[in-house]
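debug: dumping io for the single-chain case to check the tokenizer round-trip. Nothing else runs in this session.
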Amino acid sequence: MAKKTTNPTKSLKIPAIIIISAKICAFISTKLVTRFAAKIFTTPIKHKVPKREFEMDSKSIKKNIYVPSIDKSIVTYFYGQSDRKILLVHGWSGRGTQLFKIADELLRNGYSTVSFDAPAHGKSEGKTTIMSEFIASILEIEKQFGPFEIAIGHSLGGMSVLNSIKDGLSVEKAIIIGSGDIVQDILDEFVFKLGLKKEISKNLRDFFEKKYEVKMDDFSAYRAAKKIEIPVLVIHDNDDPEVSVKAGIHITENLKKGTQFLTDGLGHRKILGNQNVIKKILEFIKGAN
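debug: decoded output
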């Protein structure tokens, strides 16, 4: 959906060819551009595993598991030997090894991690997916590899973790990093980046609700937050160009036991490897409820 950038303060851009194609579709018909936008919205980019993630990738025990509720298979990564397990959930166009620096530190502190390539991501099969399939994958992983003490999610993975807890995932604490919040805001931003009229966003929402037979706003993070009783650490960067810090603040306001940790200058991805962030994560995990 977007090109990779090494500048954490610069928002990811949708390739020009996709924007041009969207405008051509819009010129032809509203129905066509809605279907085109839906296809782009649900198609992640599969990036190659970068060298910095090779160690976690090679040392993890990988297992392909079937998720019956979505009729798809995903690749899981069991990293470490401890029975004290923590679930890691990557974001859109991410991978099961993307949170490797956090995973490495958790291993050094007596935990093991279980992560996965979401449908259509990394080594998992498929070309398209949506958040409900992230959630279904998490709940199936809990059945096969749980219980987990902690769940940690980045970006869309953060939204998925909160929704999974709402839907029955049992953990003692959760940590979300750079999480999105209101689904309609995400659709609005996506349509804006495509250079389309705002009304297409509503059409896109209606398209997904009809196709997946769900209410999109039911997946908004703040709605899940209202139903969560466990302690949750919300980490967000003030300069995140992809997900506004307002999302993290709003989620925290709706949590019963929410703790907020805001950073500066780390953007949306660099935050995952920052030592102060990792230190805060460990303090939260080890602290009393």
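debug: round-trip ok. The chain has eleven helices and eight strands.
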